[in-house]
Amino acid sequence: MSLAVDTIEMADTSVWARSAKLPLAWFLRAVENGQIAVCDMVAMEILYSARDAEDYVQTEGDLGACPWYDVEPADWAEARRVWREVIKRGPPHHRQVKHQDLLIAAVAARHSLTVVHYDSDYDIIASVTMQPTRWAAPRGSLDPTQVRAR
Fold it and tell me: In what order do the strands lie in the sheet with 133-135?
């Protein structure tokens, strides 16, 4: 799998975590080529996994090399709007989508970026927003027992 040279996608933390351990060579190439974007929420989730201060500084610097999209107040409003629509579907849907994923999707939508992920939350979100999303690898193909945080 490869991206067009000028394509930028927002990568969810679910992809970053798996890319450290599993064969997602296309993802690592895309990061190196500046085609994988992050936003504040993705960075916060990744930085949560830092082992110590040195790892935090290194990881933050690495993320800073990616195209960066700030979270804005309108993104919070959009995340709440989408959550409201999901909740209307009734239990258990409202608890199936994490607020972090709603916010990441809102930032990506505002910038017309596809969200690349390995998390079914984005299927639910896209069923409301109709925004472009795609699985980083076929669903179920990556063994979750092999995944570790960056």
Answer: 68-69, 36-39, 9-11, 114-117, 133-135
Q: Please count the other Cβ atoms lying within 10 Å of the Cβ belonging to residue 114.
A: 17
Q: Which residues pair with 115 in a beta bridge?
A: 10, 133
Half-sphere exposure of 75 (CA within 13 A, CB side): 21
Measured CA to CA, the distance from residue 129 to residue 46 in angstroms comes to: 25
> Which residues constitute the domain of residue 66?
9-139
The CATH number given to whatever domain includes residue 130 is 3.40.50.1010
Strand partners, 11: 116
Q: How many CB atoms lie within 10 A of CB 2?
A: 11
Position 2 in a domain: no
Eight-state DSSP code of residue 118 = S
% of the chain at pLDDT higher than 70 = 87
- Supply 116's token pair: 């690349």
| Interval 43-60: pLDDT, tens | 999 999 999 999 999 999
pLDDT for 92 equals 77
